[in-house]
């Protein structure tokens, strides 16, 4: 990541969805090669072509099956629905060995009272991902980013802070750098994976805010003076 001439290929599992597609679009604009992965490879190819049409000559987006996407990528993003989370990770376990895996999944349930965070056996989606992918470095991030804002190229800067959580310092720093490639975003270290449940659960509150105020709310962290946290040394983190 430090060599500007060697850019990582980002594989987005669930890139046909709103958030995954939005991240694919913004990273491709930033010059990163992106692969969209889906259980239906042809659907992924169609989604990639749709994004590529928006880009014209600005970036590279291709489509593939879940396994091919994870195999060809240097960094893998998990952006699938919660109910497909475990089965998807089990499917790509060998292809993600030794790689950074960014989990953006928010476990959510809905009833008459609205959205809420259900109990997760492992504690959080990120912790479930680390258990299922023991040979990968899982980092949790991008939980509170509006897919609507990402997809709207009339909005050049997506001004929001991204809380980045992980147990490996170098992997956290790499994800912070990927966050900073999207104009307006700051990637801020926010703790180890064991604290991810609170970050994932906050999405339910943002949904309530968005419905009440008809907006696309994000998170802004006050009194964090670093404009680009990825430019600073990574925090001291000990793997648990």
Q: Could you describe the 3D structure shown?
A:
This protein is α/β, with parallel strands linked by helices and 240 residues long. It has eight helices and ten strands. It has helices at 18-29, 41-55, 66-72, 85-91, 125-132, 147-151, 169-180, 196-213, and strands at residues 10-13, 34-38, 61-65, 75-78, 100-103, 109-111, 114-116, 137-140, 160-166, 185-189. The strands form two sheets. The protein has an eight-stranded mixed β-sheet with strand order 3-2-1-4-5-8-9-10, with helices on both faces. Helix 1 (18-29) crosses helix 2. The model is unreliable at 230-240 (pLDDT under 50).
A few lines on this structure:
The chain has 240 residues and is of the alpha/beta class. The chain is built from eight helices and ten strands. It has helices spanning 18-29, 41-55, 66-72, 85-91, 125-132, 147-151, 169-180, 196-213; strands spanning 10-13, 34-38, 61-65, 75-78, 100-103, 109-111, 114-116, 137-140, 160-166, 185-189.
Please describe the structure with a list of short key phrases separated by commas or semicolons.
disordered C terminus, 35% helix, 8 helices, two-stranded antiparallel ribbon, 240 residues, 8-stranded mixed beta sheet, globular, alpha/beta
Outline the fold blueprint.
Blueprint: E1 10-13, H1 18-29, E2 34-38, H2 41-55, E3 61-65, H3 66-72, E4 75-78, H4 85-91, E5 100-103, E6 109-111, E7 114-116, H5 125-132, E8 137-140, H6 147-151, E9 160-166, H7 169-180, E10 185-189, H8 196-213
Relative strand content: 15-25%
* Spatial shape: globular
What oligomeric state do these chains adopt?
Answer: single chain
| Structural class label | alpha/beta
